[in-house]
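User:
I study polymers; will you set down one protein's sequence and backbone structure tokens?

Assistant:
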Amino acid sequence: MTMTDEPITFDDHVASAKAMLQDLRGRQITQFPAYQQRPGEKLVRLTLLWQHSLLYRIVDVASASLRMFEAGRLVPGCTLARSVYESVAHLYYLHKKMAAFIVSPDIPAIANLVIRGSWGSKDESTEPEAIQVLTAINHLGKAYPGSEDEYFHLCEYAHPNFKGALGTYASMEIPSMNVEFGLNPQGLPMVAFGLGGLELILTVATEIFRDLQDLEQDFKKAVYENAEGKYPD
């Protein structure tokens, strides 16, 4: 920092997150074009359905997380931010597999991935088994160093461990053991403990979604060229 630089404030971090959310909102769509039957079209449409559903989820949950941080609500803010990481990890996993498919098309493999990603569940409410969240988080961590560590930090607030309970809701003096309870009696800083992590993952989400949009036409072309007799509509 130079003598003329102003320190980055909490409001600056909030404004940064809001700007990225606005960028992502601008990439949301409200419907697909009319369906035109051809081999591979269902696979293309289901892939884009998964992709854009994830985008809506990211914007929705990240917006709620940001509101919590603005209100000084550390635990719900971090818990929601953790969910954003999981959603962005799935988005990156899809991006990685789409890019690989363009280079080396494998219709059954990409179809299985997309079906599990878009229709999968862990409670057997749908037939395919969902993709493991930690698998996607691991892939994200390799591509974006530090993101996996931040995810596990946020997990501590989503669970009733030290950070998610006593560490946030109580302020204890040692050795007197005098205790003060509250939503954040220690005044833990939102940026250092959660908002900074939300900013990080929104930056990643913006980059990944731009890359996905750049891949879209090449992905469609690869599907159409290889779906004949393998993935009929």
Remarks:
- Strands lie at 170-172, 179-181.
- DSSP finds eight helices and two strands in the chain.
- The radius of gyration is 21 Å.
- The chain has a mean pLDDT of 94.
